């Protein structure tokens, strides 16, 4: 049962995450019941069980390009068709989106190369193929990572809670680790396991890009953006 694992080094989404630890999304067909995550400082041996992921993530790739759009407003451009496995998609109300529903990562497959977007409308086109539209782009400060175009074949991962953070000590940030991910019922040396060697910088610790740049004479000013709880109306400005 070969699995498809994907690491995502993401900004803080709720505020209670470990800011330095990446998320891991895994899917497989058929799903083996659970996947085990083993880690070691060296590739040859010394692996210890790091985490167990009980449910698959909805993952796939784009079937059309997605052009950049302005963050903070509805992107009502053409629907984006994606092919996914591991589950289904569903539409959500604007109120549900404001509470975090339908959060999707789109990226190039590298740990840090992800834009976060949300979609209100999901329409089934054919088996495994969906069209998502009425989007909110560049969420959680990832507008700074949005390219001019996400090309066909870009990776998508639905962040509905199935992807979980691995256990990574703060002192291990930026240090290479070897990961083996596969069916929890099998040993980590089984052929069904996938090996990934990666180091993570901890995107949850990265300051967001500033906004409201202003130039008055020789004085340049801007407003910083907070990672968490910066959008409340009952407190002072950031």
Can you put this structure into words, describing what you see?
The chain has about 240 residues and is mostly beta strands. Helices cover about 0% and strands about 40% of the residues. The strands form five sheets. It has a six-stranded antiparallel β-barrel. The chain has a four-stranded antiparallel β-sheet with strand order 4-3-15-16, with no helix packed on it. The longest helix has 5 residues, at about 95-100. It is globular. The N and C termini lie far apart (about 50 Å). The mean pLDDT is about 95.
Sequence-ordered SSE layout with sheet pairings:
Elements: E1 3-8, E2 23-28, E3 35-40, E4 48-53, E5 59-62, E6 66-67, E7 74-75, E8 80-85, H1 94-98, E9 103-107, E10 114-126, E11 129-139, E12 149-150, E13 155-158, E14 164-165, E15 177-183, E16 194-198, E17 211-216, E18 219-223
Antiparallel strand pairs: 1-2, 2-14, 3-4, 3-15, 5-8, 5-13, 6-12, 7-11, 8-11, 9-10, 9-13, 10-11, 15-16, 17-18
Q: Helical proportion?
A: under 10%
Physical arrangement of strands within the biggest beta sheet: 5-8-11-10-9-13
Major sheet characteristics: 6 strands, antiparallel, barrel
Strand content: 35-45%
Low-pLDDT segments, ≥5 res: none
Give the structural class.
Answer: mainly beta
How many helices? The count is 1
Shape: globular
Distance between the termini: 49 Å
| Cα-based radius of gyration, to the nearest Å | 19 Å
Q: What's the pLDDT, averaged over the residues?
A: 94
Spell out the helices and strands N to C.
EEEEEEEEHEEEEEEEEEE
Number of strands: 18
């Amino acid at each position: 049962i070969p699995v498809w694992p994907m690491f995502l080094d993401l900004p803080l989404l709720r505020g209670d995450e470990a800011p330095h630890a990446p998320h891991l999304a895994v899917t497989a067909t058929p799903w083996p019941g659970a996947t085990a995550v083993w880690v070691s400082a060296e590739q040859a041996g010394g692996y210890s069980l790091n985490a167990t992921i009980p449910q698959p993530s909805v993952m796939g790739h784009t079937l059309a390009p997605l052009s950049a759009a302005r963050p903070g407003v509805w992107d009502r451009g053409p629907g984006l068709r994606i092919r996914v496995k591991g589950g289904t998609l569903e539409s959500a109300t604007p109120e549900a989106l404001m509470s975090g529903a339908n959060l999707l990562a789109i990226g190039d497959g590298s740990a840090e190369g992800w834009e976060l977007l949300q979609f209100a409308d999901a329409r089934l086109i054919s088996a495994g193929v969906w069209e998502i539209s009425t989007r909110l782009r560049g969420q959680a400060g990832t507008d700074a990572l949005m390219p001019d175009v996400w090309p066909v074949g870009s990776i998508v991962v639905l962040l509905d809670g199935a992807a979980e953070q691995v256990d990574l000590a703060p002192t291990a940030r930026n240090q290479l680790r070897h990961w083996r991910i596969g069916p929890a019922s099998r040993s980590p040396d089984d052929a069904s396991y996938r090996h990934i060697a990666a180091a993570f910088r901890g995107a949850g610790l990265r300051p967001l890009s500033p906004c409201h740049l202003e130039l008055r004479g020789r004085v340049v000013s801007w407003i910083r953006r907070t990672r968490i709880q910066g959008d409340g109306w009952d407190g002072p400005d950031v």
